[in-house]
Amino acid sequence: MGCRYIVIYTLLPMNSHRPIITLTLFILLSISYTTFAQDISEDSITTPFRKGRWLTGLSGSISSNSTKIDTASQRAFSNQYSFDFSTGKFFKDQWLLGGIFKMQRDNSRQYVDLESETLLIAPLLRYYLSNNTQGSIFFSIAPGYARFREKTVVLVGGLPSQEILKGGGFGLFAQFGYSYVLHDRIIFDLGLGLNSAWVNAEREIEPGSSGNKVNIHTGTLLFTFGFNVILDEFFF
I need a surface site. Which of 14, 48, 211, 231 has the fewest CB within 10 A? Predict the structure, then answer.
């Protein structure tokens, strides 16, 4: 629009009204430029981590290890996996508040068979450092209730002896990572997390059924990955 006014101006003849015409065209050009700039600002994409939106997703980790020792007749192995479901709302740009359910399971066999499982239910607070439309580094923390269970089986005199530890206490999941945004709606996360629990567990031993209380602290460093969906409104 501004260029069109300039062309009309150059075709006008020289006369005494030219200063008035010049001023009028300048005002119209200014108005046209301001309107154009406002349209660009309104149409531009703002940060996907903006106030009022909901974020829901799944993430997890998996690892496996196997070892064969020449002097041993058995092969040692260990498997570990975890997954978590989280949801929350941005109460402020780049600040997310919600909740998380996390499960971690470990299996290993060397000289004993060991199975352990940790569950965590906690509120979740996450902060995205950047408002860039392509993605951002984030930090999150989730302190809450943890449930722990561990089962150990060992052969004693050819007979299996079983020990079970189970109890509840305080759990904490802290995470650092990067969120890559696809089309303002889909987010792919990569991160490094620390899953810890402090529980007061009851020990059961079979055969014999003797037991006592023990305090247990667990800590696992995890490489996590997952997908999240951002919605302007919740599902219902």
Answer: 14
Among 190, 174, 171, smallest CA distance to 126 is for 174
> In the structure encoding, which two tokens stand for residue 99, read together?
């909740």
pLDDT mean across residues, the chain: 80
The DSSP annotation for 184-203 comes to TTEEEEEEEEEEEEEEEEEE
Q: What's 113's domain CATH number?
A: 2.40.160.20
Is the pLDDT reported for residue 208 higher than 70?
A: no
Return d(Cα 21, Cα 8) in angstroms, integer.
Answer: 10
Question: pLDDT grade, residue 203 (50/70/90)?
Answer: confident
Q: Does 16 share its domain with 92?
A: no
138's enclosing H/E stretch is: strand 135-156
